[in-house]
Amino acid sequence: MYGVLINNCYVTDGFGKKADVIDGKGCPIDPILITGIRYSSDLQRAYAESSVFKFADKPGVWFFCQVQMCMKKHGMCDGVT
């Protein structure tokens, strides 16, 4: 009945530095850094692969994304990503 749509992803070092990795349409900004988002056939799961990276002199990297619900029954998930 419902599916998920992922967009507007960014990474941060937790100390104010931020870099966008997925745009508002769910497309990768730099496909070398992170792949396009892939969805399961039932649109219940989404994933992307990433090369290992970090911000210089920072211990970690955090990913944040906008996750939207869509109704498959009414075609609201079709053609969005």
From TrEMBL:
InterPro entries noted in UniProt: CUT_C, Cuticlin, ZP_dom
PROSITE patterns on file: ZP_2
Pfam families found in the cross-reference section: CUT_C (PF25301)
Presence of the UniProt keyword Magnesium in the record: no
Keyword set includes Signal: yes
Keywords: Signal
Record-annotated ZP domain positions: 1-81
Name of the protein this chain belongs to: ZP domain-containing protein
Organism annotation: Caenorhabditis japonica
Lineage, opening ranks: Eukaryota, Metazoa, Ecdysozoa, Nematoda, Chromadorea
